Amino acid sequence: MKQPHDNDSKVRLDKWLWAARFYKTRSIAKDMIDGGKVHYEGHRVKASKEVAVGALIRLRQGMDEKEVVVTRLSDRRGNATLAATLYDETAASLEKRRLMAEQRKALGASTPHTENRPNKKQRRQMLQFRQQQSD
C-alpha cells in the first residue's frame, strides 16, 4: 500500500481534496474551488494553490459545510482510512454539522408526505381543478 507523501512535498489543492476523498474526481474538486465552495485559510483560491500542513480549509459538500485542518499531504487517492489521516475536522465544524442535521431531520418530519404518487385519474382531476382556478 502506498503511503502519503512527506510533509515537505508540494500538492495542489484540487489533488489534495481528491486524495482526501472530499470529491469523487479532480474535475469536480476544481469546479467546487472555482465556484467558491472551497476556501483556503479564509480566502477563495485557485485549484493550483499549494496545500501546506496545518492549513485550515472550509468546504461545502452537499448541504454540509466542513472545516478541516490539513495534517498530511498526498496527491494519490487511497482507501478511505488512509484518506481520513490527511485531515482533522474541527470540533466547531462537527458540532455545527450535527445541529444542522438535527434541524433538517426535524423539518423533514413536519412536512407531509404522501404514500404514493397520484394515479392517472387523480392527475387529470388536479389539472382540471387548476384550469378551473385560472379561468
Topology summary:
Blueprint: H1 13-19, H2 26-34, E1 38-40, E2 43-44, E3 56-61, E4 64-70, H3 80-84, E5 87-89, H4 91-110, H5 120-134
Antiparallel strand pairs: 1-2, 1-3, 3-4, 4-5
Helix pairs in contact: 1-2
Quaternary state, please? single chain
Q: DSSP helix count?
A: 5
Mean pLDDT: 90
Q: Roughly what percent helix?
A: 40-55%
Order of helical and strand elements: HHEEEEHEHH
Structural class: alpha+beta
Radius of gyration in whole Å, from Cα? 22 Å
Distance between the termini: 70 Å
Major pleated sheet: 5 strands, antiparallel
Poorly predicted sequence stretches spanning 5 or more consecutive residues: none
Strands in their spatial order, largest beta sheet? 2-1-3-4-5
Task: State the shape.
Answer: elongated
Task: Give the strand tally.
Answer: 5
- DSSP strand content: 15-25%
Structural description of this entry:
This protein has five helices and five strands, in the order ααββββαβαα. A hairpin with a 2-residue loop joins β3 and β4. The chain has a five-stranded antiparallel sheet with strand order 2-1-3-4-5. Helices cover 41% and strands 16% of the residues. The protein has 135 residues and is an alpha+beta fold.
Gist?
The chain has 135 residues and is α+β, with helices and mostly antiparallel strands.
